[in-house]
Specification:
Strand order of the largest sheet of chain B: 6-5-7-9-8
Largest sheet of chain B: 5 strands, mixed
Largest interface: A-B, 52 and 63 residues
Radius of gyration of chain A: 22 Å
Number of helices of chain B: 23
Order of helices and strands of chain A: HHEHHEEEEEEEEEHEEEEE
Oligomer: heterodimer
Helix content of chain B: 55-70%
Number of strands of chain B: 9
Number of helices of chain A: 5
């Protein structure tokens, strides 16, 4: 029995090694799949790839249709149409739970298109970064709009390094609000995350009251926070704290209708 | 043994295995890119070889100043003094002789030859050890299975320490076994262990295995005869220690002496320098390492890293055969060969892999850091194959040799098929249990390290780059860039633009070697180039390993 089992395993491995190595769709399949997307692509569509490790190949095929702002998005909620190019049965997190309006296989690359009512953004802190005023920030601890690595993913965010233990208050005057304010918090830079292990904290204040809070540790990635807000313009303050110096705290937030 | 009317002694068969291994490694390494650390070892090796030749020529003496200039310095990494010099010195002399003097090998191949030769020695030793303790079938299979390990074959083709440290670890085990069972050449145990120490600090773990085995064997031998009655505990303890005291003396005296003799940096202020050497590794920075979908760069690490990584990076049939072989050893304990070679092999493996269960030992580099388990795995696999084949031969009444040949052949072919799809990007390869390289990527296993894959993207870069001077962000290939230029793999007009964002901003082309923690390099390039679109993506079995970007025209 053991010899038979061993022989079976060896034969299986001999075949499986070859099969596995050829299991990822080739360039022809990707070209064909990209062709379908190009034919029906509309400005403002989001293109995602699954699994995540095939992302470079996807960007090679369709990267000209992916603006940096889309690749480094806060989240996918503002996109009405999402194209998912997937292999090996994977699904992109941006399309989880959605039903595709079209799906077609191109020799192993499955192109699915999803449509939905998008979040209507009425205010974006990244677009209003220049108008923000800060208190508590020393020189070198001012917020900067950057494209950062947070949780090994790209995110455009306001990056700030608060002094250890001291809060920095960043106020956006007359910020247009909708019914919700949605944001994300994280720590940029893998090396400072390795060397400094303490978390960061963010509060959102509206009219002097905290309406949302979030904590992000070194392994938490891009942490979501949200608050219900009264529509209209108001001063919105983001209060950020870090127990240690040299924390590259990153956040983004949108007011949504 | 007679093959095609040629009578071969077993010793000759062992050497043929060694030769075949050296050839296989040297052929395989031709397409393997230059590892980041390898460049450091090559440079240090060339420097050490030059120091020794200058010493022989009388151009300098052995003063503290001369030794420091050759092997040391004030910084912990000056002249690569954080690693002992044996293999580096051999790399340097190999380059000097086979490349610079004789012109027989290219620069990179010449530096790598000593690793290949020492790996050949390891395979030959596996053959000899299995032959002496089990039989010819086991010996041949153990050697072939050892040769059929994709990751080991890869590491043996680098001018680094990992494959050599495995070889010298196992050579020490063999020397110890020989001394314990024959009472001859005890001196060799210490000398060979000293060579292992002079290769890599991990050899410091070996005495735990040898010491435990010594105590087991010595305690068994101290029981006394039936006529003398049971000896006291003290008497048994003394008898245990004195059982093969020459082996202990050899390890305690000749091991450190060999290390001392081979490492000029220890000739002055040896205690201080040994303390520095060990402190460097006890406090080593934790490099980033992806494991099961998460980037790990700080303890506590999962206890199962070493087990899972080994299970996914040794051919499946080899693992299955090793499980059978281990079962045979366990079931056979009542009839074990005197002295317990299986116990010795198990202890050797345990000492090599044990620290990685602690959760604090650095896990970057993965299997290369516990490679000394592999001789144990391969010998166990060979024992398993032969045992299963013998039982089958009895059952279906076929010649035992034929059964061993067929079953062993299947196991070896399975390993060979893994090698054929894994090389030259063996760090991206995972076995069929994982689903190959794509399965490993799905599982979130480490993609690669040391930037070796950059070499595969050089032809694509060369094809699109203009002939004029052009800056290239070379990422993790930066240390190797000048060697790639010298060896003609990339044009001298393609200049290394320098590190990080400033280098990217200066560059017209950019390379990114894909690892989870290297994603930030993509993002820096996007910011600078204004596009997320690479022009070329190098893949191994479909898995992206290197991207090349070109700055779009303004």
């Amino acid at each position: 029995v053991s010899a038979l089992a061993l022989a079976a395993i060896a034969v299986w491995e001999t075949c499986a090694a070859r099969r596995d190595a050829a299991s990822v769709p080739d360039d022809a399949a990707w070209h064909e799949a990209a062709g379908e997307v190009r034919a029906e692509f509309q400005p403002g569509d989001l293109i995602v790839f699954a699994p995540g490790w095939i992302d470079p190949v996807g960007r090679r095929e369709l990267g000209d249709l992916i603006p940096i702002a889309a690749a480094a998005r806060m989240d996918a909620d503002r996109y009405a149409r999402i194209w998912e190019l997937a292999i090996r049965g994977a699904h992109a997190p941006e399309a989880l739970g959605m039903v595709p309006v079209s799906a077609r296989d191109h020799a192993g690359v499955t192109v699915r298109r999803f449509e939905r009512a998008p979040a209507i953004v009425v205010g974006d802190v990244l677009e209003r970064a220049a108008s923000a005023t800060s208190t508590g920030a020393s020189i070198g601890a001012r917020a900067a709009l950057v494209l950062a690595e947070v949780g090994f993913a790209p995110h455009r965010c306001l990056q700030i390094s608060p002094p250890a233990g001291a809060p920095v208050r960043l106020t956006f005057p007359a910020f247009p609000l909708g019914r919700t304010l949605v944001g994300y918090l994280g720590i940029a830079d893998v090396f400072t995350r390795r060397d400094v292990r303490t978390p960061v904290h963010l509060d959102v204040e509206l009219a002097g009251h905290i309406v949302a809070s979030a904590d992000a540790g070194v392994d938490d990635g891009w942490v979501r926070f949200a608050a219900t807000t009264p529509p209209g313009a108001a001063d919105v303050t983001f209060v950020v704290r870090a127990a240690s110096a040299d924390r590259k705290l990153c956040f983004a937030a949108e007011a949504r209708q | 043994m007679k093959i095609l009317s040629v009578t071969l002694t077993y010793k000759a068969i062992g050497w043929l295995f060694a030769l075949a291994t050296v050839i296989a490694v040297m052929v395989d390494q031709r397409d393997v890119g230059i590892a980041r650390d390898e460049v450091v070892y090559m440079q240090a090796g060339a420097h050490y070889a030059s120091w020794w030749t200058d010493l022989v020529r009388g151009e300098h003496g052995i003063s503290a100043e001369a030794v420091t200039q050759g092997f040391g310095g004030s910084s912990p990494t000056d002249n690569n003094r954080e690693h002992p010099p044996l293999m580096k010195t051999l790399f340097g002399f190999s380059d000097l002789v086979f490349h610079q003097k004789l012109g027989l090998l290219g620069e990179v191949a010449a530096f790598r030859l000593p690793s290949a030769v020492v790996h050949g020695l390891a395979v030959a030793l596996v053959f000899r050890f299995a032959l002496a303790l089990w039989g010819l079938g086991e010996a041949i299979l153990a050697a072939l299975i050892m040769l059929g390990l994709p990751r080991a074959l890869f590491h043996a083709g680098l001018a680094c320490f990992d494959a050599p440290s495995m070889a010298l670890w196992f050579a020490t085990v063999c020397a110890y076994w020989h001394a314990m069972t024959t009472r001859r050449r005890s001196w060799a145990v210490g000398v060979v262990w000293g060579l292992a120490l002079a290769t890599k600090h991990t050899a410091l773990l070996l005495p735990f295995a040898l010491g435990a085995h010594y105590l087991i064997v010595g305690w068994q031998a101290s029981r006394g005869g039936p006529e003398s009655g049971p000896p006291s505990f003290a008497a048994r303890a003394w008898a245990t220690l004195a059982y093969r005291w020459q082996v202990i003396a050899s390890l305690a005296v000749l091991g450190p002496l060999t290390l001392y003799a081979l490492w000029p940096w220890l000739w002055f202020d040896p205690i201080h320098h040994v303390r520095d050497w060990l402190a460097f590794h006890m406090n080593h920075v934790h490099y980033n390492y992806e494991y099961l979908g998460r980037n790990w760069n700080a303890p506590r690490f999962p206890w199962h890293v070493a087990v899972v990584t080994t299970v996914l990076t040794v051919p499946v049939a080899t693992l299955a055969a090793a499980v059978i072989g281990a079962g045979v050893w366990i079931a056979d304990r009542e009839r074990r060969i005197a002295g317990g070679p299986a116990i010795l092999l198990a202890l050797s493996a345990a000492a090599a892999i044990g620290p990685f269960f602690l959760g604090t030992t650095p896990i970057f580099g993965a299997e290369k850091h516990w490679m000394p388990i592999l001789p144990t795995v391969c010998i166990a696999a060979s024992v398993g194959v032969v045992w299963a084949a013998r039982r089958t031969a009895q059952t279906i009444r076929v010649p035992v040799a034929a059964a061993i040949g067929v079953l062993g052949g299947l196991v070896v072919i399975a390993a060979a098929s893994e090698i054929s799809v894994g090389e030259p990007y063996a760090l991206t390869w995972y076995n069929a249990l994982a689903g190959g390289a794509p399965g490993g990527a799905d599982l979130g296993m480490n993609r690669q390290f040391w930037g070796v894959a950059a070499r595969g993207a050089l032809p694509a870069l060369t094809a699109v780059a203009p002939p004029s001077l052009t800056s290239v962000y070379t990422h993790d290939a930066s240390p190797a860039w000048s060697i790639y230029q010298r060896t003609g793999l990339v044009s001298r007009s393609l200049l290394d633009a320098g590190p990080e964002q400033a280098g990217i901003d200066r560059s017209q082309f950019a390379i990114v070697i894909h690892e989870l923690h290297f994603h930030r390099h993509d993002f820096m390039i996007w910011s600078s180039y204004g596009t997320v679109r690479p022009i070329f993506v190098l893949r191994s079995a479909g898995v992206p390993i290197v991207s090349v970007y070109r700055r779009p025209p303004k």
